[in-house]
Amino acid sequence: MKLAAAIFFTFFVLCLTVPARAGIVYFNDFSSTPGAEWSSTSTRASNGESYLASTSGYGFGNGTVTLTLTGLTVGASATIDFDLYVIGSWDGNGVPGNNPSYPDWARPDNWGVTVNGITQIYTNFVHYTYNGQTQAYPSMLAPLGSGGSNPARTGATATDHLGYGTGYYGDTTYHFSIPVGNLTSSTLTVAFTSYQTEGYSNEGWGLDNVKVTSSVPTPIPASLLLFAPGLLGLATFRRRFDKRR
Ligand SMILES: [Ca+2]
Ligand SMILES: [Ca+2]
């Protein structure tokens, strides 16, 4: 019985010490219409790529699109990945000087993400540089005018992927991976908001390849459970063998 006890103790400790495994709890490439987890389920296709966006103009305009996931494991850590498509005549930090009397088109076009109400991204992007406009990104958290002055498309993972043209218009893909720490709620609410100053007929945006991963604690991994009958059999055999001696 001592051997059996030792084997089960070892098995128990193994179960406790195997690290939590990361798993994909949500993924969407918008190759089909998404479900009610999205506040807007409008998709469109450009240049063979399907993505979440308004079907008008250059996609979504000023406003918020929300992803809500429920049933997540409280205490698990989560990470959100997605591609942002910036399309059309975005003005980044706006025309240098940020004079509030500037017309709409000359003022900053900011864009941000909150997760369960906490700001994770607040930045801007530029395509239209005719008046010296720059962009805050790759600064992730850029209070107005303090996010740095970077050239157009800095940090892009793809350029003109969607076929909207080039230069002052065109499109840029930015990939984000946001670790949001340990979940304090089983509901995850991700709000994507554009604060752009012109309509979607001038500048717009879309989302693609949205993925949420979570480290869900798994106290008894399936792979170890498979070994359990074998360990029990080994213990039984050893006990019989010992008795015969
Ligand atoms: Ca897609
Ligand atoms: Ca603008």
Short description:
With 245 residues, this protein is of the alpha+beta class. 16% of the residues lie in helices and 34% in strands.
Radius of gyration: 25 Å
C-alpha termini separation: 15 Å
The residue fraction in helices comes out at: 10-25%
| Named CATH topology | Jelly Rolls
Number of DSSP-assigned strands: 11
If you had to describe this structure to a student in words, what would you say it looks like?
16% of the residues lie in helices and 34% in strands. With 245 residues, the protein is α+β, with helices and mostly antiparallel strands. It has a single domain (19-217), classed as Jelly Rolls. The strands form 3 sheets. A 5-stranded antiparallel beta sheet has the order 1-11-5-9-8, with no helix packed on it. A 4-stranded antiparallel beta sheet has the order 4-10-6-7, with no helix packed on it. Strands 2-3 form a two-stranded antiparallel sheet. It is globular. The two termini are 15 Å apart. The model is unreliable at 7-20 and 217-239 (pLDDT under 50). The protein binds calcium ion (CA) (2 copies). One calcium ion is lined by residues 29-30, 49-51, 208.
